[in-house]
Every structure is written in C-alpha cells, then in structure tokens.
Amino acid sequence: MSKSDEDKLSKEEAIEIIKSELAKIDDKGQKTKWGRFLTSALGSIPWVGGVIAAGAALHGENEQGKVNKLQQIWLEEHQRKIDELAYTIYQILEKLESAGENITSRIESEEYLSLVRQGFKEWDNAESFEKKEYVRKLLTNACATSLTTDDVIQLFIDWIRTYHDTHFMVIKEIYKNVGITRGQIWNNLNPTQPQEDSMEADLYKLLIRDFSTGGIIRQHRETDYMGRFKKQSRRGSKSGTLTSAFDDEKQYELTELGKQFVHYTMEEVVTKIQQ
Fold first, then answer.
1. Numbered ranges of CATH 1.10.10.10 in the chain
2. Average pLDDT taken over every residue of the chain
3. Using a CB cutoff of 8 Å and minimum separation of 24, what contacts does 167-174 make?
C-alpha cells in the first residue's frame, strides 16, 4: 500500500484500494491484512455497519452477490461520504504500513481496535474537517508510537468530542507561544476585543476555565533543576476589580498532557515531546 513520493496514488486510486479491500472476505469470514482494522472502523459507524455486517455474515456465492449489489446501490447514493471515509482509512493504513512489521501485533490487538472503533465513531460525528483530521492523526500515532497509554488516548478522543474548533485554536496558540496571556491569545485570533460585560467575554473566560480544570493548560511558572515549581511571591494588596477576560499579565502554557494531545492529534508523526 505504501508509495514513494514520486509514485503517490491519487485520491481516487486510494479510495478504490480501500473499496477493493472491503470485498476481500472469504467464505470463512477471514479478513485481509488490514481486515480487522477496516471492519472495526466501519462497524462503528451506524450507516456503514449494517452493510459490512451483512457482507461478513453471508457465505454463499449467490448471497454474497446480493450484498455486493446492495453495496453498489448504497455506495452510489452516499458516494461523497464513502469516498471521504475510504480516503481517511487509506491515509492511516499507508502511514502504518510504512512503519514496518513491528506494529503488526499492535494493529491487531483488541486494545487498539477498541480505540479505532471509538475514534471512527467520533470521526463520523465530527462537525468539521479539522476534527476529522484530529481523529485520523490520533489513530495513526496511537498505533505507531507508545509515548502514552491507551487510557490517555481514550481521553484525547473524549476531548475531540467535547471541545469545539475554537477551543483547539486556543490550544494551538498556547502551544506555539509558551507564556502567552489571555489578551494576546484573543488578539491573535480576533480582529477586535469586546467589552468585559459581553457574552463573548463570558464565553472566553469559560473556555479558559474549562482548559484549566481539564488539565490541558496551566499558568506559566518557573521550575527548579528537579522540575519542581518555584514558589511565587504575592505582591501588592488585593484589588476589588475582577480579572479581565483579556488579562495581559497572567501567562499560560500547556500541561504535559496538553502537549501530548497536540503531538498526537495535530502532527502527522509523533515527535519527541518538547520540554
């Protein structure tokens, strides 16, 4: 399945490869090399699972022919979604095949296939292309690397479901600019700054609070040579004024968990976590 840069498949060719792989189920229900991944991915999506399950359950040649005809009709009615799904699967499998044989046991493990089922369920429910891409990269990296546990990968899938594109834009800003303030984040993403008593300001404060309590971001603090946070001195008297939603004093950074989320979901290949 893997191709060199000079011999890359077109999107249409890649889609056809996945469709042909789906048809390769023998009379004993045995799958191809990528069969368990394919059936796990597609079986988790309601509008696909019924067709795949029917194809796997029928053994006779005549019965299989009926299913193939049904698939053909169904594919014609849902061509765009099927093509998008097939190409996403192809992109994952192409990356995994280039990783070598050492991932074979991982891709066939029930632990990983469980993540595949959960991931593609969220892929199908994702309301944006960006979220679908986060799922694709997460499932690829979760198989090819072992920087974190499957429980954490499950948490990352939950985050993709829970948060919106605006949340992820903020995460990217903090990742790119360690020590950035809330005011700087807002100004980098928006042309104007609303009033403090506006709905926009309230939502922005809620977003920052969600990330802080969720363990994704924290206020930036210096550490000693052992990695322990240095104590901060408290200066000045307390003010009766609430902290602005667009505060330009408190600095933020990603937690180590937040950094791993970025590497697993926003990069094609997981690299060493930045310290």
1. 165-229+242-266
2. 79
3. 167/207, 167/210, 167/211, 168/130, 168/134, 168/266, 170/207, 170/208, 170/211, 171/211, 171/216, 171/217, 171/254, 171/258, 171/261, 171/262, 172/262, 172/266, 174/217, 174/252, 174/253, 174/254, 174/258
Q: How many whole angstroms separate alpha carbon 205 and alpha carbon 121?
A: 30
Residues 48-107 pLDDT 10s: 755 444 444 443 444 445 556 665 665 566 677 878 888 999 899 888 887 776 788 888
Q: What's 223's DSSP letter?
A: B
Class of domain 165-229+242-266: mainly alpha
Tokens 């005011």, located at residue: 183
Cα angle, residue 14 at apex, residues 168 and 2 outer, rounded to 5°: 90
Amino acid at 67: V
CB neighbourhood size of 186 (10 A): 21
